[in-house]
Amino acid sequence: MKKIGFYFLMFFSLSLFPLFLGSCKKASSSHEHKKGEHHDEDKDHEEHHHHQGSGHMAHMKKVREALKKKLGKDYDKPVDISKADLANGKKIFLQTCATCHGTTGKGDGPAGKALNPKPADFTDPEHSRFYSDQGRLWIIRNGIPIPGTAMVGWEKSLGKKGTLDVFAYILTLRKKGESSEKDHDHEGKKIMMMITMINSSILDPFGLNKGALLFSYIGGSLM
Known about the structure:
By secondary structure, this protein is mostly helical. The protein has a domain of about 130 residues: Orthogonal Bundle (Cytochrome Bc1 Complex, Chain D, domain 2), CATH 1.10.760. Helix content is about 70%, strand content about 0%. It has seven helices and no strands. Helix 1 packs across helix 7 and helix 2 packs across helix 5. The longest helix is centred in the first third of the chain and has 49 residues. The protein is globular, with a radius of gyration of 25 Å.
């Protein structure tokens, strides 16, 4: 009975192996495509900082220090966005902020191309987290606290509620950037698992344990 079970499992493992290879190829192709996109984003990010000159980071540090002086102990306090209206925030962002920051928040708006330093890229987690949330909200409401940028404050025209809505929407752009990085890492781990499975099957195509593992993995990937 064990022999029958063994050969039955071996038959299914080997018969589904071509499907597994096809799935691997498809996933690999998708991974390479996403890797290329990720590489392009990294390149754009490097160019984003490169074109701003070597003093860009020094400027951001000065802005952060100025924000800490303005906000004091409130600098690191969380921002309550429970009453924020994301739909209104998006509407305001596209009407008011996208000219410089771009419709997707990457800092690539038409008016932003001529600015130095360049507008903030809200989809870059590292860049968008350089200031605290209170600091970012303060900038939206009052503008950059030191001379040298085109960013002005919007509280007088949008009010506290409008600027809070915009801030809440900007947070969603940051989360999209973080999700993109996590998806890239997950795809890479999936490809490595597939490669490991293929190597195991080639080295021991008739092993009961490896055959069962292969069958289980393929069955799960086809669900």
